[in-house]
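tool_call: predict_structure(chain=1)
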Amino acid sequence: MPPLNISSRLELFVDDYLIEKQRRVEQRLTPPIPREIALEFDKPWEGNTSCYYRVFKDGDIYRLYYRGGSYDRDTKKAAEQFVCYAESRDGVKWERPALDIHPYRRHKKTNILHSGAGAHNFSPFRDSNPRCKNDAKYKALGSHAKALIAFKSKDGLRWSLMQDEPVITEGAFDSQNLAFWDDERGCYIDFHRDFRRVRGKGVRDIKTCTSQDFLNWTKPQWLDFGKTPPEHLYTNAITPYPRAPHILMGFPKRFLPSRKVVDVEMNGLSDGVFMTSRDGLHWNRWREAFIRPGLQSDRWYNRNNMTAWGMLILPSAIAGTPDEISLYSSEGYYSPNVCRLRRYTLRQDGFVSMHADARGGEVLTRALKFEGRQLQINYSTSAAGSVRVELQGSNGKPIKGFSLDDCEPIYGDAIGQKVRWSKQKDLSSLAGKAIRIRFMLEDADLYSLQFVKR
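tool_result:
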């Protein structure tokens, strides 16, 4: 097998892409930490079925789009649904702007952007296609008449149809169906809901297709999860990872329709799961939950724990510590009152680690080529733990000056720690050559690696 050419890309240990073999090391999923409530959906046009959230940074502000809606548990009737909008300067405190776009009853100014066709699951994005026209800097998909229709906007607030005809028709679209311009692949890429027959039963699953103009799409294909057993995936929330956009990450809401904990008339439990891909078609999906419902009773209601589409990198609340990833997840859906969106955080690259306990373990990468002068790692140890690194040639033997004995033990906690060897400070002589990296871990977690110029 030819060596991997990782150049100077940041590479995460979220899959087996880098790994040749491991011993006494566990590839461990890291759950995010729940933080404050980002937004409570308590306006008259919102309520306990507000969902299908979309969050992204846009210049100096952060944008949040979502469906406003409510369900009366006594009459079993759903209210009209709206596309709603909120903004934030820091990604933590969110406000609804009073806009002259869509009134609601006696309220002349609201944060409603749209109602009618597509409002059920309107999913927008800021288009990074260099050939994007000025009046379509923002685009969106929404479902209507069992198909997906395409919208455009100049400012992200006032929307119009790109054409009357639907753009994607093969699928079952009663979910958050999304698309975006993929800079790595040079095309628009879509991920949407369909029902798949598995052992005679229908399972909520995900299809994907691509386009060059957002209007004409290829025939949809099922995502390939390898040997992972089929499960109901209600949403997908797939997005490029901002620090390594060649890696796609998905945060589906997994749905178990027959389970029930809270005493309500509707069965069905959900949690958040995690998956990654390097081509958009073949995926590594974890069976373990990424976000569990936890101790809050209203996260055990039907259809909760929906991870918003999009992640932000924001300052940590702890002074002197690096920026963190922020994700957002729902709670209180179908509850007697209103639902809420809660922020969650985790360290940068911190989705999965190569974890070894105090007995120690090791990881050996596949043969790879790189560009750069130094190797840096994202890692964490206990006070007694350590990480040591060895560079090996294609023959599997340590390269002179880069053996384990030459490596200064690394201990601490850092997002980008340079690896030092006692006699060698520069890796330039190895750039472009096939090498393997051997990591020795003791009571440590290794999240990512990257070769850098400085």
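agent: The mean pLDDT is 96. Proceeding to next step.
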